[in-house]
Amino acid sequence: MNHIIGSKSTAATPAVKWLLVDEESAGQRLDNFLMRHLKGVPKTHVYRIIRSGEVRINKGRASAETRVENGDEVRLPPVRVSDKVAEKAERPAPGREFPGLFEDDSLMAIDKPAGVAVHGGSGVSFGVIEQLRQARPQAKLLELVHRLDRDTSGILLVAKKRSALKHLQDQFRERETGKTYLALVKGDWPAKLKVIDQPLHKFLLPDGERRVRVTTPEDPDGMRSITLVKVSQRLVGATLLEVTIKTGRTHQIRVHLASQGHPIAGDDKYGDFEWNKALPKQGLKRMFLHAWRLQFNHPVTDERVALQADLPPELKAYIDHAQFQTPSV
To answer: φ and ψ at 275, to 5 degrees?
Structure first.
């Protein structure tokens, strides 16, 4: 059975829906505006209803490239969505707030716990952003500025205005942000190794899961990736590193550090699996990668904002314990 967006119930007569463009959505292309409101509807269908003239702005036809303006009325024809999408809409994510590091009218910075995805997808029904939206139904807009891996904890930025989202994402793209992580790696990290400048290549495993590997500068699919490394503490059999990334590639830190023979503790994709098996008995039950510090220019005031999320208790406890270990003779 299919469901109709804008209908009162599954048995109701299909109905036209009218959307009023608010200030936050002003300036968006019509196709992007519709995709935000037609979750689960294939892109091809969105473009089809635009081309057919069924979508209208202030009763007039419009193209996909038309920019919507504040106060515009957009007509949506009845659109069918799959049972799966309709079922998801009926069972929304549980509302949840996360520890806050900074918040104003433009953005918020939270301290994301490990084990929580930033958004739904890939077998995860919901993530941080869906839970935040459910906890704050009055918020006009909440959008992720960037991403963190599910098993990485630490600073995550969420925009509360479209202008702030664009401004901040531009800074990430232009490498104007300062992003430093804390990572515990296996072995004794060489003091002289301070810069890793190796291109990374994304690929898919047969089951569709994505992976990344170091490649050569000649690889046409390789993306230049730069990681700066500083030793924070030397422990028995491991090193705590401050890792600053100049590029934000998928799994960059995990792959770069592992490529040097020093994988991150608890990394289930690129780690040392034998070492990982022993770590829970020593008190470490997650990957030791934490988004520790972040600097950016405020999207409104342009002032430099410097944030820090201290190590979570479980990681700090492991470090405190490891410091006092003595090598066996």
So the answer is: -60, -45
Residue 188 pLDDT exceeds 50: yes
- Better-predicted residue by pLDDT, 291 or 328: 291
CA 133 to CA 161: how far, in whole Å?
Answer: 14
Specify whether 83 is catalytic. no
Contact 199, 217 (CB under 8 A): yes
Cα–Cα distance measured from residue 78 to residue 63, given in angstroms and rounded to the nearest whole number: 19
Task: Provide the 3-class DSSP secondary structure of residue 273.
Answer: helix
CA-CA-CA-CA torsion sign (39, 42, 46, 52) = negative
Residues 2 and 86: their CA atoms lie apart, in Å, by: 8
The residue annotated as part of the active site, out of 72, 111, 149, 272, is 149
Q: Choose between 25 and 105: higher pLDDT.
A: 105
Judge contact between 329 and 312, C-beta under 8 A. no
Give the tens place of pLDDT for each residue, 100-145.
999 999 999 999 999 999 988 766 778 999 999 999 999 989 999 9
User: Residue 73 pairs with which residues in a beta bridge?
Assistant: 20
Residue 306 carries which side chain, given as an amino acid letter? A
- Could you read off the pLDDT of 63-90 as tens digits, one per residue? 999 999 989 999 999 887 655 555 555 5
Around 149, how many Cα atoms within 13 Å sit in the side-chain half-sphere? 22
Burial tier of 40 (Cβ tally within 10 Å: 0-12, 13-18, 19+): middle
Measuring CA to CA, how many Å separate 187 from each of 184, 242, 278, 323? Answer: 9, 15, 15, 14
Nearest alpha-carbon partner for 75 in 89, 93, 60, 55:
55
pLDDT (0 to 100) of residue 79 = 83
Distance from C-alpha of 54 to C-alpha of 50, rounded to nearest angstrom: 6
Per-residue tokens: 134: 């459910």
